[in-house]
Sequence to fold (369 residues):
Amino acid sequence: MIYKRFDGIKLSRLGMGNMRLPVKDDIEGKPIDYDKAQEIIDYAMAHGVNYYDTAYVYHSGESEAFLGAALKKYPRESYYIATKFNLAANPDYRAVFEEQLSRLQTNHIDFYLLHAIMDKNYQSYFDSGCIAYFEEQQRLGRIRYLGFSSHASPNVLDRFAGIRNWDFAQLQINYFDWIFDTSAKEYEVLRKHNIPIMVMEPVRGGRLASLSPAAEETLRAAHPDWSMASWAFRWLMRLPQILVILSGMSNMEQIIDNIRTFESEGALNDGEAEKLVKAAEIFKKHIQVPCTSCRYCCDDCPARINIPAVLGVYNTYKLDGRFALKGLKNIESDGQPSDCIACGACCPHCPQNIDITGIMTELKELTRE
Fold:
């Protein structure tokens, strides 16, 4: 495992995200499969991963409890825990913080974040009083480093980054968003403020782990033994402001491949980076909706639609035509687009600002014909 120095400690370049842990598909509510998830954590610990990221809302609150139990058998000084306060989930930051310490079975949080800063909510974080409270917890030693995660526009990010001396921040950065969206500008904002970066969505919720055939052919010609995910991670290694690259690993195959990528320094050279840009341009034709499967949109859906799965079928439809819409019958979802009442409850929670109701309306019309 390769590491990067930060404030006198060593952080593994690969961090374990705990938002997409394996679940028990045969049980209602799909709780975390503790045995399979523990196996992933144990493999990570055995291979030098020491940064574990979770949040109050992941897996409907179960992620923190799982992680606390999974790491309990290891010395506390052998790993670093990152978790987050989500104002929309529960505005009582005092109660949330105490609950998180209990769930995680620890007396301190190593890396604590204000969760999902966006243009529409950043003022609420200012006004809530939570920043002063968490600063006090840091002075008391219950928080080691204080930061935030952001899905905000570059201008709002610049404002938020400048309100205090943040210890770190978490951004969605990957080569696709760097080329076609605002990731490059967001990175430069944090570099200007000298804020170290933890990266989320390095393979865009798995979208960059499997590209279109033509895009993959371009990359495999250069390195037949590299996975598509490995290309994404190696591209991120080029950016010096980045400390940890998080990956939400759901099975052993993923973590074994990722550990292999991070065994030694292997950032892309300029020629390899150019090949990746060409592959991204080819793949862009395959991507119509930038969903990362975070599932923030699902909890308030009255029709219980598996929105990320539906959007995945929508992307395939945009590439392959109407025949792909048959895939809607194969997804695991209580509701279908035809059940959508266009209430809009999903849209405010989407970090990617996807017009979910518009897409559901389009699909409803397409499947009605």
User: Anything to note?
Assistant: Residues 3-284 form a domain with the TIM Barrel fold (CATH 3.20.20.100). The CA atoms of residues 314 and 335 lie 15 Å apart. The two ends are 54 Å apart (CA to CA). The beta strands are 3-6, 9-12, 14-17, 51-53, 80-85, 109-117, 143-150, 168-172, 197-200, 242-247.
